[in-house]
Specification:
Layout (H helix, E strand, L loop, with lengths): L6 H19 L4 H16 L15 H24 L1 H21 L7 H17 L1 H12 L17 H21 L4 H16 L3 H29 L3 H25 L4 H24 L1
Helix pairs in contact: 1-8, 1-9, 2-9, 3-4, 3-11, 4-5, 4-11, 5-6, 5-7, 5-8, 5-9, 6-11
């Protein structure tokens, strides 16, 4: 069954509606935003990307060693790119994220599926346009690590003409693409698009994006990962979740240690995320091809 027709999609839509009602009618302070974001990141956001070794084709110990060596090698090469050519590294982060977010939503094998590409762009670029001034500070802190960024800064949404035009073009392009290429599930994709757009308009940049990342990407990505794992290992759902525990626990402990021993730096956090994202995208793209 396609993800868009699954019970998971219905559950996500209901949760998103509840969250929208919550932020519209109640004051959500920074502490509450941080707690809720942390809960979702620990439950699904971090675990969904920390178990790529489970999906290797060679199930032997030597296969695991080769997998980890190549995985860490890609991270090391990407880290060098961030060090020497940070602008190219940032552009690469955007490109692979566009593809990855769109692919998990539209379940396409090709990297050229237009609705998939546009959906990935919307998830990332839409909040950037809405909160442009805040987003620029984050990008500056990624390109120049000595830049500082106050995490509690929240900028008012000031809509200038270029923002309105950019958002309109982006939204129209996506709606046309799903009308032409995803007509069977058109209504559900429109509902999903409307819910996320409304959410982005009424939430701060980081809180809004983290919740979309966890709710609308990580959950459905885990669904695909479980299906793929069961196809190669022939196991139960319970076995899959038990197999996730070791590396998920290591990732969560490492994340906690990073927050405890290092001063939080928003640019550094996103760079760290990008280093993990690149090999993760390569692994998950192979899953969809299979």
């Amino acid at each position: 069954m396609k993800y868009i027709n699954s019970k998971l999609f219905l559950a996500q839509a209901v949760i998103q509606i509840a969250l929208i009602i919550w932020v519209l009618f109640f004051t959500v302070d920074l502490a509450t935003q941080a707690i809720l974001s942390g809960i979702f990141l620990c439950i699904v956001g971090i675990p969904h990307g920390s178990n790529d070794y489970l999906y290797r084709e060679d199930r032997t110990t030597w296969g695991l060693i080769k997998f980890l060596a190549s995985y860490l090698g890609i991270i090391a090469l990407y880290a060098l790119l961030w060090y020497y050519i940070p602008l190219a590294a940032l552009i690469l982060f955007f490109v692979i994220s566009f593809h990855h977010f769109g692919q998990s939503n539209h379940e396409n094998q090709s990297i050229w599926h237009l609705p998939s590409i546009l959906w990935g762009v919307i998830l990332i670029v839409l909040p950037v346009i809405i909160h442009f001034e805040e987003a620029i500070l984050i990008f500056k802190s990624m390109l120049a690590y000595n830049q500082t960024y106050a995490i509690d800064q929240i900028y008012p949404t000031q809509f200038t003409l270029w923002k309105m035009i950019s958002i309109s073009i982006l939204c129209i392009a996506y709606l046309v693409s799903i009308y032409l290429l995803e007509k069977k599930e058109l209504l559900k994709y429109i509902i999903q698009f409307a819910l996320i757009t409304i959410w982005y308009f009424f939430t701060p940049l980081l809180f809004g994006f983290i919740m979309v990342f966890c709710l609308w990407h990580s959950f459905q990505s885990l669904r695909h990962q479980k299906s793929y794992f069961q196809s190669i290992v022939k196991s139960s759902s319970r076995y899959f979740y038990l197999a996730m525990l070791p590396f998920s626990s290591i990732a969560l402990v490492a994340f906690a240690a990073y927050l405890y021993y290092f001063d939080f730096h928003i640019g550094g956090a996103f760079i760290l995320l990008s280093l993990i994202t690149l090999p993760h995208v390569l692994v998950t793209h192979r899953q969809y091809q299979h």
